[in-house]
């Protein structure tokens, strides 16, 4: 297995074997597909509100899979992984798995948009923040597990580290 791509990070050149990139992409697509299939199945057996309130954590599995993908490539951002696979696009397996990943992303978006539609979230949301944009601490949120209303600012200054995941289709 030859070197398919190199990425310069922090002044160091990071080499990625084509097999490692193919394996990482394949695992992400496999895990993401399994999680999506499970989420679709669960959303059909429960009401949408019950699915969101009790099984929303299953959607976070894709976050774990994506983190594993990035770690396996020794990169920190999806843009760095994309740079690697772009440089490796002449490898047919890389190209095939990237196309599968893009299709999976589209399928996830459609699933989440369907949940939005069923819950009529777009009618209740005061605003939509652009991806990568800035949010006001005054932004009204709903805790997905408890259903309690709160503000984004209520998470600031608690004196401990916190990982806050805002799902773009629910936030």
Could you provide a short overview of the structure?
By secondary structure, the protein is mostly helical. The chain is 53% helix and 11% strand.
Structural notes for this entry:
By secondary structure, the protein is mainly alpha-helical. Helix content is about 55%, strand content about 10%. It is built from six helices and four strands. The protein has a two-stranded antiparallel ribbon with strand order 1-2. A two-stranded antiparallel sheet has the order 3-4. A hairpin with a 6-residue loop joins strand 3 and strand 4. Helix 1 crosses helix 2. The termini are far apart.
What is the topological layout?
Elements: E1 3-9, E2 12-17, H1 18-45, H2 48-55, H3 61-72, H4 78-87, H5 92-119, H6 121-124, E3 140-142, E4 149-151
Antiparallel strand pairs: 1-2, 3-4
Helix pairs in contact: 1-2, 1-3, 1-5
